[in-house]
Amino acid sequence: MIVNDKPSTELTSHDFYYDLPKELIAQEPVEPRDSSRLLVAHRDTGRLEHRVFRDILDYLTPKDTLVINDSKVIPARLYGIKADTGIAMEILLLRQRGLDEWEVLARPGRRAKVGTILSFGDGEMTAEVIAVGEEGNRILRFSYDHSTDIYTMLDRIGKMPLPPYITAELKDNGRYQTVYADERGSAAAPTAGLHFTTGLLDAVRAKGCDVVRVMLHVGLGTFRPVKAEKIADHVMHSEYFRVTPEAAERINATRGRGGRIVAVGTTSCRVLESAADREGIVHPMHDDTGIFIYPGYRFKAVDALITNFHLPESTLLMLVSAFSSREFIRKAYEEAIRERYRFFSFGDAMFLC
Predict the structure, then answer these.
(1) Sequence ranges of the domains in the chain
(2) Of the CATH numbers 2.170.150.20, 1.10.10.10, 3.40.1780.10, 3.30.420.270, which one belongs to the domain with range 8-73+172-352?
(3) How far apart (Å, rounded) are the C-alpha atoms in residues 87 and 163?
(4) Would you give the end-to-end CA distance of the chain in angstroms?
(5) Residue 130: is it exposed, middle or buried by C-beta count within 10 angstroms (0-12/13-18/19+)?
(6) Does residue 323 contact residue 17 with C-beta atoms inside 8 Å?
(7) Quick check: 93 pLDDT over 80?
(8) Does the reported pTM lie above 0.90?
(9) β 239-243/285-289 pair status
(10) Does pLDDT of 116 surpass 70?
């Protein structure tokens, strides 16, 4: 990773590049979940500690609040054909626009013109391309036996949308869900939460640390590459999030007792920063967020961050660099590579505190 004294307005994606040996890309999750490794990165001193994820208990206090994203991944990848020609098509559901209307990523996109009919599961479900949306994404209207619902159909014929760098077959779809996943709608897992077991969360609560749920449906915005020459010109794809009045009240109470707000993952972090005002007060709301956090951003709500190791040049790496510094993240990632940590979705974790 290149580090220099560029102002944030001059940063490019290459300023967040690093070399990663291919064998360090985790192809499957570890068992049990909380046995993954944990790199504890102290931002104030620059100290790095090598622990196991369940040791996160040692770094939480009864005054703290752990904020988790309880969005649930749907089997969002569909393989089908064009009804008129039989040409194979691949669809990734990104976002529900109506009861049976979804924004999708279609491959090959040039084949998915408005009016095209697609067929899935030997005709169990069909879809019509009704519009072309942002960045060339398609809007599909699905048709199926309405004695059921689309999520039941997806459970039957859809595939879990694993990232392309994971080539191993997932034996248990539940391992690409957090143990607290609740509301269906994500096209990818909020992966920092994959390390928690029910028992570990119980232990966190038993210690007196509050655990609060927020929700952000993970879509294309998290993974879109930065194509703009300068990252400041990059526009994030918006994602739907929600903070309930109860969640906001409990999060805001953290400050009053002198605790820290600990975000589990970049999605929880983006929710909190989207819902917080300039004074750091988090407000109840449900809305779309296109917040893009990169060096130079001033955090309003988040005090500590649990996160995985992210792809080079990704917006997620830019976020964690903003939360500490590019120099410190470079140091931490070099240490993780040297110590053979596992990277990306099924990889190990880092606690930035």
Answers:
(1) 8-73+172-352, 77-157
(2) 3.40.1780.10
(3) 24
(4) 21
(5) middle
(6) no
(7) yes
(8) yes
(9) antiparallel
(10) yes
Q: Give me the amino acid identity at 352.
A: L
The DSSP annotation for 70-110 comes to -EEE---EEEEEETTT--EEEEEEEEE-SSSEEEEEEESGG
Q: Is the pLDDT of residue 134 over 80?
A: no
Q: Confidence band (pLDDT; 50, 70, 90) for 180?
A: very high
Domain topology for 77-157: Thrombin, subunit H (2.40.10)
Structure tokens at 75: 């089997």
Residue closest to 175 by CA, chosen among 28, 35, 309: 28
Between CA 189 and CA 69 the distance in angstroms is 10
Q: Which of 12, 9, 37 is nearest to 349 (CA)?
A: 37
Q: Do 114 and 130 form a contact (C-beta atoms < 8 A)?
A: yes
CB atoms within 10 A of CB 270: 29
How far apart are alpha carbons 214 and 263 in whole angstroms? Answer: 10
The predicted structure's pLDDT at residue 288: 95
Please tell me the distance from the alpha carbon of residue 27 to that of residue 170, in angstroms, as a whole number: 9
